[in-house]
């Protein structure tokens, strides 16, 4: 009897995958949905995982968008283990994070396409659409996990705070974004307190995201709030040297990577701001009648931190010199961002304590430095601007970390040279971008308003010296409200040349 099995034709085995355009369900050779390079809509190739993670093709497509578009953009000019690897991995195990990722990706795609309705969506599921539905699912999963799930782990709750802050920032709800950042910072602060009181206490096991990585992420998010609102920065943990490269108080003679240099600068800036605020928020400084002893102590502290930043700059330059042939493109832009931040910090700490606190004209000696910073920012933003020509649209950029906006805003606030100020404002308008809670258009409008306040009634301003100290504003804090097209600027200023007291003023900007 012949062997039937040996005569049976075998079909070549190939993995079953779904490819092509998810939007119109066509193969990638010919989409009919308009999702083509000429239309500007993305064509995203998707392969099904070995198990079914998603409820439908829309979720699957949004997750693919997150991996292909959101991750490369959200981390800015730097590689990020948190975004590149840990968040996608955690979303495979935690339904709440899966829905948060899909929500952010859906909202990011609408942001890229210039959909201004994302600023209007609050609890309206019509305006909020699929993104808001997924956001609400993520929140429900955290509050009331399914019967198969236990209470969310520590890292799940902290990653959710980051994802929710990103989502709220992107749709312009900065108050909600700050609340999520505060929630994460408070969780970490309680952990730090427990570690100090019970050093041998075992911390809860982590599912996917190491605690040390979350320390770094929240330090950066928290510093955005500090720069914007002047709040007190979070306490930092005392990590071992090899725990997270660069995220320690010690600075090596030479950094080994861009990531290590960035971690080190973030750690140093947090230490500087936290220690200097202890002086500036002291009662004698608040009243403006500090003694020479207090001022000398404050000055010594400032010089110490200036030396630390200069030490960092030396280690960073050694890294750049050793890797001059390896750093280009996006990495070079990231290097310029770090150099800008370090130059600004070193200059701030180098100004005499009394002048820094009481004389706004002390910044007039820094015009050359401000011009150099603006030149750096021009190089960085030129690399992100759309090509010149008819039909090109400048694609808005979404980055969660503080990169350019705060630095340029600080230049407009402190540099009174009319030409340099207007160059900085033009750069804020040049590339529409959202950097965490910093929005480029709102930042530009608030910067313009500050310039108008100081130049108003002074005639034609041709140089920084044309703006007297009494007309200059200080202690500037801003709050953005994109959905209502409004910004709030709080500052201090003398009423006139004859006034001796700086009064607090709140200015609401609407358009």
Q: How does this structure look, described?
A:
With 511 residues, the protein is mainly α. 53% of the residues lie in helices and 6% in strands. The protein has helices spanning 4-7, 57-74, 81-93, 95-112, 125-143, 154-170, 174-197, 211-229, 258-280, 283-287, 292-322, 330-350, 353-358, 367-382, 405-414, 418-430, 440-455; strands at residues 397-399, 433-435, 438-439, 474-481, 486-493, 503-510. A three-stranded mixed sheet has the order 1-2-3. The chain is globular and about 70 Å long. Mean pLDDT is 81; it is low at 1-51.
- Integer-rounded radius of gyration: 26 Å
Sheet-strand content, in percent, reads: 5-15%
Shape field: globular
Secondary-structure-derived class: mainly alpha
**Tally of DSSP helical segments:** 17
Strand order of the largest sheet: 1-2-3
- What percentage of residues falls in helices of 4 or more residues? 40-55%
Question: What is the arithmetic mean of pLDDT?
Answer: 81
Q: Report how far the terminal alpha carbons are from each other.
A: 89 Å
The low-confidence parts are 1-51
Number of strands: 6
What can be said about the biggest beta sheet?
Answer: 3 strands, mixed
Q: Order of SSEs, N→C?
A: HHHHHHHHHHHHHHEHHEEHEEE
